[in-house]
Specification:
3 domains; 46% helix; alpha/beta; binds magnesium ion; Rossmann fold; Rna Polymerase Sigma Factor, Chain: A; globular; 393 residues; binds NADPH dihydro-nicotinamide-adenine-dinucleotide phosphate
Length: 393
């Protein structure tokens, strides 16, 4: 029986992973080692009982007593706090889902790779901040990383049986997010609720707003460069409002391989779960006659300054990816709290990168500790930048 662990089980990707595991027979079909959550202790305990996990860990240390109480008599061990999450990644499992949001997902992913596992990687922040280190860690321990981000899963699938040297370009599709059709002048006043109304994908709150600002696509451009090892200029972005083509690979002979399907994360999660097999998945089938038309448009960089910043991050290298990701997370916190306007997030991120230029270095990141230190520094600096901007409004 295959053993699995799910990090970030209570989140959007985590819940969809649990759904697929349950549909496949749950504890009868898989030995569930570790399930982790953050603050949602009730849901974590419920899924740990249902899947008969060995251990359930909540990232929030103050949730420990409640978790232990909810698991009493179930045979599931309870643990809490970041160190307990990292230790859970040391428990042997054949397949590990990395779906904690943000930089908190880095350490458990690295720890799982050290044990030579297959890591299904939803946590794109790992590649953006520490891509070369992550790939080196996987290679050193004979571990496999399978992309779960829908675009990267699409590219991975389009590359099956192909040589990466035959690739001319990788074209990432973007829905354009909730504010895609708003006039440029109106974007400055966009509220959190408006930015959350994503047209196609049901995702966690933070990634949904990052879709509207295209900070998510900016991360994905960097993620593509890191994961597939292509040059920055080979990665393109196109707005495709229907979200039915999940991304494309263009080859030197002019052929383009596109991956299509309903916008449902269970496709890419299920692909990673069943890889290299393709098992039936409970996703809607496309009726192309009904779809009738697919549309595309070039992204406007004045609307989406995050895409321009992604190019700068890739050119800068060093710890710039770590600074970019942290600054973006802080800018988003300030947008959520009302301190920064929707269009002010990119300016705050750019100012943070400029302020940290001397600290970033230009070589590849050398150690995970350096990445985590830059993450911390960039959060402090981005917080100062955001507060200054809020005061001078
Ligand atoms: P959610 O916000 O829905 O879920 C995040 C998960 O991480 C939850 O289980 C949450 O716990 C947990 N968590 C949050 N903070 C911490 C912490 N400090 N320590 C430990 N656990 C924590 O995020 P998504 O599922 O949307 O995204 C997860 C990852 O997958 C992200 O990196 C995202 O970019 C990526 N991704 C997501 C896609 C999607 O469709 N949602 C698509 C492609 C990639 P709790 O809820 O209990 O607090
Ligand atoms: Mg994506």
């Amino acid at each position: 029986m295959r053993s699995i662990s799910i990090f970030g089980a209570t989140g959007s990707v985590g819940e969809q992973t649990v759904d697929l595991i349950q549909r496949a027979g749950g504890a009868e079909a898989y030995r569930v080692v570790a399930l982790t959550g953050g603050r949602n202790v009730a849901r974590l305990a419920e899924m740990a009982r249902a899947l008969r996990a060995e251990v359930a860990v909540c990232g929030d240390a103050s949730g420990f007593a409640e978790l232990r109480e909810r698991l009493a008599g179930s045979g599931v061990q309870a643990a809490a706090g970041p160190e307990a999450i990292a230790e859970a990644a040391d428990r042997p499992a054949d397949w590990v889902m990395s779906a904690i949001v943000g930089a908190a997902g880095l350490v458990p992913g690295f720890r799982a790779l050290r044990h030579g596992r297959t890591l299904a990687l939803a946590n794109k922040e790992s590649l953006v901040t520490a891509g070369p280190l992550l790939l080196a860690e996987a290679a050193a321990h004979g571990a496999t990383i399978l992309p779960v981000d829908s675009e990267h899963s699409a590219v991975f699938q389009a590359l099956t049986g192909e040589d990466i040297s035959a690739v001319e370009r990788i074209i990432l599709t973007a829905s354009g997010g909730a504010l895609r059709d708003w006039p440029l002048e109106a974007l400055a006043k966009a509220t959190v609720t408006e930015a959350l109304a994503h047209p196609n994908w049901a995702m966690g709150q933070r990634i949904t707003i990052d879709s509207a600002s295209m900070f998510n696509k900016a991360l994905e451009v960097i993620e593509t460069r890191e994961f597939f090892g292509v040059a920055p200029e080979q990665v393109e972005v196109i707005i495709h409002p229907e979200s039915l083509i999940h991304s494309m690979v263009g080859f030197h002979d002019g052929a383009i391989m596109a991956h299509m399907g309903a916008p449902d994360m269970r496709h890419s999660i299920g692909y990673a779960l069943n890889w290299p097999a393709r098992n039936a998945l409970p996703v809607a089938r496309l009726d192309l006659a009904q779809v009738a038309t697919l549309t595309f448009r070039a992204p406007d960089l004045t609307r989406y300054p995050a895409l321009r910043l992604a190019r700068e991050v890739m050119a800068r290298r060093g710890l710039c990816g770590a600074a970019f990701n942290a600054a973006k997370e802080v800018a988003l916190d300030h947008f959520l709290a009302g301190g920064l306007g929707f269009m002010e997030m990119a300016g705050a991120v750019e100012a943070t990168l400029e302020a940290l230029d001397a600290e970033m270095g230009s070589n590849l990141p050398q150690a995970l500790e350096d990445v985590l230190a830059m993450d911390h520094l960039a959060r402090v600096r981005a917080g100062e930048v955001a507060r200054d901007r809020a005061r001078s409004r």
